[in-house]
């Protein structure tokens, strides 16, 4: 079955710097890769997603890149702000397949220091 | 618009007792999912409802876990009898699309002592 590895487990950056979180997946059938942000006391919130027919997607300060050959995808946050501090999860699934359940990474705790 | 709502937010029970978690999805969302996160580990899929039918329950750990979604609206997840390893945060999510899970509830933190 699918396995998703996420690194690093913790990340501390200065406000204004960029943050990069990386994930690798094992199942070549996976074609949908969402990223979630979980703030304290809240559930995960979808912040951006990418499908395997594109290599990069941007939404303001957030971007995700995908390398299908290497089976890895990354989340890039530019100009980080204190409110970006949270736990970020990557996930993989087979969009359109018989089972749409997500396989999550273990999470990255991002701390943005003002 | 109300989001996905879960009750209770916290539950502490003794080993061997029964606990029932409830999830109210976003109105109109046919797809409802249960996930859980055991301390320090990844969030793991438990099961997926489409309306009142179980589409996929491959993630349910054992027969001590029973999920229902009568009438295709809210769902309950019962653990009976609870074991220590059942401790964790149980998330419910709902979606209009079977493959894009956008809306999670805040979770129920279950502690079995």
Approximate helicity band of chain B: under 10%
What is the general shape of chain B?
globular
**How much of the sequence of chain A is in beta strands?**
over 45%
Our estimate of the beta-strand percent of chain B is over 45%
Biggest sheet of chain B: strands, sense, closure? Answer: 7 strands, mixed
What is the number of helices of chain B? 0
Please count the beta strands of chain B (DSSP E, at least 2 residues each): 11
What integer value in Å does the Rg of chain A equal? Answer: 14 Å
Query: Quaternary arrangement of the chains shown?
Result: heterodimer
Structural class computed from helices and strand pairing of chain A: mainly beta
Number of helices of chain A: 0
Topology:
The complex is a heterodimer of chains A (114) and B (113).
Chain A: E1 4-7, E2 10-14, E3 19-25, E4 32-38, E5 45-51, E6 56-59, E7 62-67, E8 72-77, E9 86-92, E10 103-104, E11 108-113
Chain B: E1 5-7, E2 10-13, E3 19-24, E4 31-37, E5 43-50, E6 53-56, E7 65-68, E8 75-79, E9 88-95, E10 103-104, E11 108-112
Parallel strand pairs in B: 2-11
Antiparallel strand pairs in B: 1-3, 3-8, 4-5, 4-9, 5-6, 7-8, 9-10, 9-11
């Amino acid at each position: 079955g699918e396995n998703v590895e996420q690194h690093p487990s913790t990340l501390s950056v200065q406000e204004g710097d960029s943050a990069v979180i990386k994930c690798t997946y094992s199942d070549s059938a996976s074609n949908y890769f969402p990223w979630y942000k979980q703030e304290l006391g809240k559930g995960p919130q979808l912040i951006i997603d990418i499908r395997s027919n594109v290599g990069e997607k941007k939404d303001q300060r957030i971007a995700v890149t995908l390398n299908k050959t290497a089976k890895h995808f990354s989340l890039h946050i530019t100009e980080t702000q204190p409110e970006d501090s949270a736990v970020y999860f990557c996930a993989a699934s087979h969009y359109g397949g018989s089972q749409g359940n997500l396989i999550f990474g273990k999470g990255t705790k991002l701390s943005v220091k003002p | 618009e109300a989001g996905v709502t879960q009750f209770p937010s916290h539950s502490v029970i003794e080993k061997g007792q029964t606990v029932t978690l409830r999830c109210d999805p976003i109105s109109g969302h046919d797809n409802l999912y249960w996930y859980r996160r055991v301390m320090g580990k990844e969030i793991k899929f438990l099961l997926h409802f489409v309306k009142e039918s179980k589409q996929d329950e491959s993630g349910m750990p054992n027969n001590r876990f029973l999920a229902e979604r009568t009438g295709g609206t809210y769902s309950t997840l019962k653990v009976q009898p609870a074991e220590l390893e059942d401790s964790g945060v149980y998330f419910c999510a709902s979606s209009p699309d079977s493959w894009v899970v956008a809306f999670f509830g805040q979770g129920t933190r279950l502690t079995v002592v």
